[in-house]
Every structure is written in structure tokens, then in C-alpha cells.
Design a protein that fits this description.
The chain is an alpha+beta fold. It is about 40% helix and about 30% strand. The chain folds into three domains: about 180 residues, no CATH class; about 130 residues, no CATH class; about 110 residues, PH-domain like. It contains 15 helices and 21 strands. The protein is globular, with a radius of gyration of 26 Å.
Length: about 450
């Protein structure tokens, strides 16, 4: 079988797996994937050339050999990596000595992301990430990299195939074409729901926990220099200062320019300053919605709205962002959050009006007034927290398990907490510090409501 050109990504309708073509990534993919390491090598080489300009011969040859070996390894990785869409499954094969073949059923796709690093933007490339309901992102569906237009078109095709649900019928529903070569792409109309305020975002980050840590580290370093009178005393603080600055930059770079739009194929999120991300969350794939209101933000009328989607854990380079939920509103007003919340939930947001028993004052005297919950036939909402108030909405049809928990102090006070777990891994609604009788009643009644909600959703 003759492989197509690297920049051709045809998706042809077929009835058998043998009729489906295999495709390769873009030839510059190794350069993009090793961008950080390559830049480090280039900087190191430039430093060696400046420092050893009188004797660059042997040292230069050694460094060039190292770079050549790294590039050769990347080329081999690109050469043995191929992908294919057939029978409703995305197949990704890679490996030279140890072959690795992965299958991703399109009907189980949770979200599809198009990510561009700074180097990828310069080269006009993008990485496609397919998020499934479980597993590790190291074993997720990643195509790094494709041409930007091809990645966007493939994203649309994957979403269309995932909605279709069946293999041959779904493939046949899409005309045969070469992605990025068959004329203008079909543009799905979208409706803008939110755009972050660029002036408000840096202030909000500085007033967040990340900003507080950065300010504290900077203040400690400045105080040390002022007391000692020598700038050399800042050396022990340099790792902490650099770490704090990196965290600030990651948060700003990841949330800058955030926009949220509604489209027929799902919820579209775009964000990023240097590294840009375009995500599409399929309808019905949101596992939970959380509204966070830090103490200082509440005084300014600001809040943060986050969603949790069942998907792979973040890769090592994305762990800083992966520890947080996906912020559809990094910072916004309560009115903006209320409007978008209505769009996400599909109805008027349910408020946690059911207050806890008086005995909960002894266990949580500061957070007592923020403890509450409520439910209807579609959602459960629960709130908690004093320094950072968190209100979580969980669809009943997404509930995976319900747990009744009672600690030693709760047992003495006749209290208990009910946890609602979903597939998103990062959010579990906690109906906290209810009376023992009420908690048992909740535990007995919610499973029937969840079953009814799943039947209605089906």
C-alpha cells in the first residue's frame, strides 16, 4: 500500500478496513515536538561558540553530532507513526522495535482539542488531541503535528463521526475528500457566549493563590537583600522566584483571550497567548460545573466558572494546567457566570437553598452559612467553603457512585456527608454536614433519581 503525501489527509468512505488509507504526520512534527529541547541545545551551542571562539573545532563537531542524533531519532519516530480512521475507530500505530497500536472508538469521544505551541504557530502546524472517557494522556489520542487547516478539518470530521455513532454509516455520511485540498471547509455557525476581559485577567491572577505565592516569594527575596545589603544573598531564592514566575506565566498564557461559543457540534473554547488551544466539547459530555468565588474576588464581584469533562489525565508538561479544571470563565462577573451557567445547564440554575442543621455550626463555624444543597429531577447542586466558596452542579445522569461518609466528629454531632462521584475525576459534589437521618434519606433517594435521569437522557 502506498502511503499518501504527508500533507494530504483524505477521509474516504469505505465499507472495509482494508479500503481505508493510512496517513502520516507532517514532516516537521519532530521539530515541533522537540521544540523546547532543541531550543535548549541551540542556546547551549551558541554559548559554547561564544566562550570557545578560539577552539570551536572538536567541541562544535561534538555538539552537532548530538543535535544530529536527536533529529534522527525524531525522524525515525515520525517515519514509523501513522494513523487511520476506519469502522468508527481512530487507529494510531507507532514504534520501531516495540510496536504500539492504539484504538479510540469515535462514539466515546469526550472532546477534541487543537493545540498550537509558539513554534507550531510559526510553522503553521497544530496538534490534535482526542480525549476519551478514561486512561492516561500519555496513551491518549494525539496527532502531533498536522497542518493547522488539516487539524481543524479533521476535528470537524471526528466530531461528525462521533455523533453518527456507527461505523460504516457514519463514514459514508461524510463525502470523500482530501482534507484541506477539496475547496473551502464547511464553517459551522457559532454563537459567542463569553469573552474574557484582557485587562481584568492579570489583576485576577495576582489576587489568586498563585499570585499570593509569587508576591510572598518576591517580598522574601527583596527583604533578604535589604537586610543583608548584598544581591548575592538572593541565590537561595532564585529557584522559588523562577517557579513562581513560571506559574504566573502559565496561568496567564493558558487563560488569555478565552472565548466560549455555542455551536451545533458542541461547546467551543479558545484560549492562549503564545500556546493557543481550541477545544470542542461534545454536547452532553460535561460531567460537572463549578462556580468558585475566592474571598478577595467576592468583594470585587468576580468569580470563576469551571467545567469537568471525562478525559485523560494531563501529560507531564501540562500538569500545571491539568491540576485545575477547564475554566470557561477564568474571571468574570456574576452576571456573566449566571448567563453562561444557564447555557451549560440548559435551564435556570438551581440554587443551594437547603441549609444545614444547627449542629453543623460546631463542626464548621466559619463555613456554616455557605453549606447548602438542592436538587430537581435533572441536577444536584451543593455549596461549601469560606475562603473560597464553591458551588457545584452535577447532572444526575452523570453520577457514577454515591457515598455516605461520617467522620468521628460528625458521628458525635449526628452529622454525615454524601458524595456524588462523576467520571470527570476532578469534581465530586459534597452534600456536607447534613443530619444523619437526612443523609440516609439522600443516599436512599438519589439512586432512583439518577436512574430516571439516565433513562430520560437516553
Amino acid at each position: 500500500m502506498t502511503a499518501p503525501l504527508p500533507d494530504e489527509l483524505p477521509l474516504r468512505a469505505a465499507s472495509a478496513a482494508s479500503d481505508q488509507p493510512w496517513h502520516r504526520l507532517h514532516p516537521l512534527s519532530p521539530l515541533v515536538r522537540a521544540g523546547r529541547q532543541l531550543m535548549s541545545l541551540v542556546v547551549l551551542l551558541a554559548g559554547l561558540l561564544v566562550a570557545n571562539h578560539h577552539r570551536v573545532g572538536r567541541d562544535l563537531m561534538t555538539d552537532l553530532v548530538i543535535i544530529a542524533i536527536a533529529l534522527a531519532g525524531g525522524f525515525v519516530s515520525w517515519l514509523v507513526t501513522r494513523w487511520q480512521i476506519t469502522d468508527g475507530v481512530l487507529r494510531v500505530d507507532t514504534g520501531l522495535i516495540r510496536r504500539d497500536s492504539r484504538r479510540f472508538p469515535l462514539s466515546q469521544i469526550q472532546a477534541v482539542d487543537v493545540v498550537q505551541t509558539g513554534l507550531a504557530r510559526v510553522l503553521g502546524l497544530a496538534e490534535l488531541r482526542v480525549r476519551m472517557a478514561g486512561g492516561d494522556a500519555a496513551h491518549g489520542g494525539r496527532l502531533a503535528c498536522l497542518r493547522r487547516s488539516d487539524a481543524e478539518q479533521l476535528r470537524r470530521d471526528l466530531l461528525a463521526l462521533s455523533v453518527a455513532g456507527t461505523a460504516v454509516a457514519a463514514v459514508a455520511a461524510i463525502p470523500a475528500r482530501a482534507v484541506g485540498r477539496a475547496g473551502p471547509a464547511v464553517v459551522v455557525p457559532e454563537r459567542l457566549l463569553f469573552r474574557v476581559n484582557a485587562a481584568r485577567l492579570p489583576v485576577a491572577i495576582l489576587l489568586s493563590r498563585t499570585g499570593a505565592v509569587a508576591i510572598a516569594v518576591a517580598a522574601a527575596a527583596g527583604l533578604t537583600i535589604a537586610v543583608s545589603g548584598r544581591t548575592s544573598t538572593i541565590a537561595p531564592f532564585l529557584p522559588f522566584v523562577l517557579g513562581a514566575m513560571v506559574n504566573l506565566w502559565r496561568q496567564l498564557n493558558g487563560q488569555y483571550g478565552t472565548t466560549v461559543a455555542a455551536a451545533p457540534d458542541g461547546l467551543r473554547l479558545r484560549s492562549g497567548l503564545i500556546q493557543t488551544t481550541a477545544e470542542t466539547i461534545r454536547p452532553g459530555r460535561i460531567q460537572a460545573v463549578r462556580l468558585a468565588e475566592p474571598l478577595i474576588w467576592r468583594a470585587l464581584g468576580w468569580c470563576r466558572l469551571e467545567v469537568d469533562v471525562a478525559g485523560a489525565r494531563q501529560r507531564r508538561e501540562d500538569q500545571g494546567e491539568g491540576q485545575r479544571l477547564r475554566a470557561v470563565i477564568p474571571v468574570g462577573s456574576r452576571a456573566e457566570a449566571g448567563q453562561l451557567l444557564g447555557e451549560l445547564i440548559g435551564s435556570q440554575p438551581l440554587l443551594p437553598r437547603l441549609a444545614p442543621p444547627l449542629a453543623a455550626r460546631w463542626k464548621a463555624p466559619l463555613a456554616y452559612h455557605f453549606l447548602g444543597w438542592n436538587r430537581d429531577d435533572r441536577y444536584v447542586v451543593a455549596s461549601r467553603g469560606r475562603v473560597c466558596r464553591q458551588t457545584t452542579w452535577v447532572p444526575l445522569d452523570k453520577v457514577q457512585s454515591i457515598r455516605w461518609v461520617q467522620g468521628p466528629l460528625q458521628r458525635r454531632l449526628g452529622l454525615a456527608t454524601v458524595h456524588l462521584d462523576v467520571a470527570g475525576k476532578r469534581v465530586s459534589a459534597k452534600i456536607q454536614d447534613r443530619s444523619d437521618a437526612e443523609a440516609r434519606e439522600i443516599l436512599a433517594g438519589l439512586p432512583d433519581l439518577a436512574r430516571a435521569a439516565r433513562s430520560a437522557a437516553a
